Amino acid sequence: MSISIKVNGRTHRVDVDAETPLLWVVRDTLGLTGTKFGCGMAQCGACTVYVDGEPVRSCSLAVGDVDGADVVTIEGVSGKAAQAVQSAWDKLDVVQCGYCQSGQVMSAIALLGQNPKPSDADIDEAMRGNVCRCATYVRIRAAIHEAARTMEG
User: Fold this and answer.
1) Rounded mean pLDDT, 107-136
2) Which of residues 68 and 92 earns the better pLDDT score?
3) How confident is the model at residue 153 (pLDDT cuts 50, 70, 90)?
4) Cα–Cα distance measured from residue 82 to residue 74, given in angstroms and rounded to the nearest whole number
5) How far separated are the first and last CA of the chain, in Å rounded?
6) What does pLDDT average to over the chain?
7) In the chain, N or C: fewer CB atoms in 10 Å?
């Protein structure tokens, strides 16, 4: 089946079964490997992408459900919030093993896009679907606060 998806600003026609998870189309068909496979059950957040501006778990979303949609992966994020988050992640040395970080960054950017001055509770709520096996949660929260301060100034 031929499906049209727009990924990171480029339209692609992919010949895959409509039930194929979006994650595998992004990684295997399009070669964008920044989005990670973690659990396959939409519970860890490693596979987070944006579909029409909303963060979703691509491991449990069929590519047929995004036919014609605008998909953004970690490779395609841009804008003030994206720059602030990426800079804060680097400045505060958030990453340990790094496996979950693309999903963490995608969720953090989405949070700051909706709430430019989040409280700790706001951050915890927005990030609760992202699991970090290295437990860098304190650094993640600090980096989100740092990114918010950067966006203010």
Assistant:
1) 96
2) 92
3) confident
4) 10
5) 48
6) 96
7) C
Q: Which of 146, 77, 90 is nearest to 118 (CA)?
A: 146
Domains for the chain: give ranges and CATH numbers. Answer: 2-76 (3.10.20.30), 80-152 (1.10.150.120)
Tokens of 138: 């304190």
Spell out a b/e string for 51-87, using b for 16 or more CB atoms within 10 Å of the CB, else e: beeebbbbbebbbeebeebbbbbbebbeeebbebbbe
Amino acid residing at 101: Q
The residue to which tokens 């600003």 are assigned: 9
